[in-house]
Design goal:
alpha+beta; two-stranded antiparallel sheet; 2 strands; 32% helix
Length: 65
């Protein structure tokens, strides 16, 4: 799995912008169920959940109830 986590600034095509730690990866590296979990998480938890998945962490119970 390929992903990058680095300090960046960004502007998205829908006009959102910001700076800070940016995680980039292919959409298909998360399952539809995992994207559903991302949708329910607090903003502060979304990146740590995705990083855990991308690193192959098996116990995701901290985020998945």
């Amino acid at each position: 799995m390929t992903y990058a986590l680095r300090p960046e600034s960004y502007i998205s095509e829908d006009g959102n912008y910001g700076s800070g730690m940016l995680l980039t990866f292919s959409y298909d590296q998360l399952t539809e169920d995992q994207w559903g979990v991302v949708d329910t998480l607090a903003d502060r938890d979304k990146m740590s959940y995705a990083v855990a998945i991308l690193k192959g962490q098996e116990d995701l119970s901290e985020w998945e109830d």
